Amino acid sequence: MPLRTHIRLVNPRLGTYYAIFAGAFTALVLSLLIFEQLGFSKRMLRLAMLAGPIALFMLIGLAVTTRNTQEFFASGRRVPSFFNGLVLGVTALGGVGFVVLTGLFFVNGFDALCLVIGWCAGLVMMVVLIAPYIRKSGAYTVPSYLARRFESNLLRVIAAALLSVPLLLLIAAEVRVGALAASWLLGRSEQTAAVLILVAIAIPLAGGGMRALTWTSAAKSIVAVLALLVPVTVLATMATNLPLPQMSHGPVLRALGRQEVWQAFPQAVAAPFGFDLAGPGKALITQRFATPFASVGRFAFILASLVFMAGIASSPSLLLRAGTTLGVYETRKSIGWAAVILGVMVMTMSSVAVFMRDLLMDQVVGATRDHLPIWFANLMQMGLAGLDGKAASVVAASITLKRDAVLMALPIAAGFPVVAVYLALAGALAAAMAGASSAIYALGATISEDVVLGLKRDAALESIRLTVARLAIVLAAGMGGWAAVMAQADPLKLLFWSLAVSGSTAFPALVFSIWWKPLNKWGAGAGMVAGFVVAVLAIVAGEAGQLPLNSELAGIFGIPAGLIAGLVANYITPMPKRHIFELIRDIRVPRGETVYDRDMRLLRLKQRARD
């Protein structure tokens, strides 16, 4: 007799639900625009733009609270490809990419593409080498997959401990960016804003797990995409009569290049291993936008792309999304959607940078210090922009602008209503919350499934398992807040460190566990430990100035170290047992039931027969 399940298939009304959500958010923005014209205070507008989306996110999260194990850990394995790709694309970019990458395009121009290439190549490597096979295994976490593949609970706990470090670094980076945006809207300190963000994340996640993460992150992704697209689309329509900034900023870029020549921007060439991307402070705009390798050397450009690629492909917070789709084909399709969405967002960010530079060249350069445009004077008053030197007339080389303020500075420079600025901040907050939520859930699931319950031989009861997971998610949120307070570093640097450590620790082990059958638990464990240790030491040495490369490129030492240590340990230890080879062959077959679900079904049948 076939087993019955109460879990439904894909909800056919999802598109309707999220169209309603997008309509509600649009109505909120339009209402605030009307209220602004009626003379309402900016404080009220800011609080409404902050409270409205967060209330909607929490309402969605609380509405999908569940007591079912598969719903909690895998969203019922019935998330449509588009929604999974939407969440994956925005989560991979996160608040750091949303805010910082826009600023890097503005300051460093072409050289920021080293990160874009890494992001996109990481998704390609994920879909080709890792994610479909994680989906077929049915594992809820990356350490759980490794434990099943190598039949080692000890390896499970070691992997959980090592991968918790990059997750904490990622949480710290996203919380810091989100707190920066929320503090502008809240009018309070970044610490208070960080507490608000973590509470708004932890409550829905503790109740609904992956199910809450999926559907709240879908809403956050819609807010982030709208907040990024709408202001620059309006500006592109005003400037070029074409509402496609991704295509219409080309002529603006050509005019900008001629202005850079007239302003005598230098033709700088970085050292081959030089890596000098803009920091969080005010940066001079002296680099030509379309000139390659002016701040990042040719070899450093390649190394940064490789580090980002390996980190994204093996990120434990992103790989969890592979298990939420209906099957292996849907997993591949969802990552394709993620690449498309990420690509559109990145092209839009470059448009923001081009239009912002053009406004500065057109309205600020050549003006006297006593007759600056009002919007630029406001930016200076807020501490977001400045002028170096004491010349009476402004030259381009004297303008400074904060890297992380470019996204919100564009609506100010374009003369848009102040609500447009708050919309950009709300989008940055939503993207940061999506990235932080994914990392917090991954850390909580790792703590509960692989540390607390990882060494138990018998499966825990569902009620105990869910209770432990909920408590672990709350603990993970607290640990993430502590990490954000302690790690007072540039969010971009924290993201680089996170991807360097995760790529060095997990990338060789995951790839070889799927594509090289003779790999045993000793080789996997030695590779993970060696990669982790070398990457951490390289980060410390790079920060201390003891290495010729920046600490952001530490993964270039950790990944080969993990690979070599794993191969050496594998060759001096016994081969895996025969049934491990059969398991790998099963994982490589895309069709059919997942390995984990099949094992659980057989276990239930044995328990029924025993009873």
Notes on the protein architecture:
The protein has one domain (54-72, 81-503): Sodium/glucose cotransporter, CATH 1.20.1730.10. 72% of the residues lie in helices and 2% in strands. It has a three-stranded antiparallel sheet with strand order 1-3-2. By secondary structure, the chain is an all-alpha fold.
Name its key features.
single chain, 611 residues, mainly alpha, Sodium/glucose cotransporter, 3-stranded antiparallel beta sheet, 3 strands, disordered N terminus
pLDDT < 50 runs, ≥5 residues: 1-7
Task: Summarize the helix and strand pattern as letters.
Answer: HHHHHHHHHEHHHHEEHHHHHHHH
Approximate helicity band = over 70%
Shape: globular
CATH fold-level name? Sodium/glucose cotransporter
Q: CATH superfamily, called what?
A: Sodium/glucose cotransporter
What is the makeup of the main sheet? 3 strands, antiparallel
Give the overall pLDDT as a whole number. Answer: 90
Which class best fits the helix and strand makeup? Answer: mainly alpha
CATH class: Mainly Alpha
> What is the rounded Rg?
25 Å
Strand residue percentage: under 5%
Whole-number count of domains: 1
Counting DSSP E segments of at least 2 residues, the number of strands comes to 3
CATH architecture: Up-down Bundle
Number of helical segments?
A: 21
Strand order of the largest sheet: 1-3-2
First-to-last CA distance: 17 Å
Give the topology.
Blueprint: H1 14-37, H2 42-63, H3 69-74, H4 81-108, H5 113-137, H6 142-150, H7 153-186, H8 190-240, H9 245-262, E1 282-284, H10 298-313, H11 316-319, H12 328-364, H13 374-381, E2 385-387, E3 399-402, H14 406-413, H15 418-452, H16 462-486, H17 491-515, H18 521-543, H19 555-571, H20 578-588, H21 595-610
Antiparallel strand pairs: 1-3, 2-3
Helix pairs in contact: 1-2, 1-8, 1-15, 2-7, 2-8, 2-15, 4-7, 4-8, 4-12, 4-15, 5-10, 5-12, 6-7, 7-8, 7-15, 7-16, 7-17, 7-18, 8-12, 8-15, 8-16, 9-12, 10-17, 12-14, 14-15, 15-16, 17-18, 17-19, 18-19
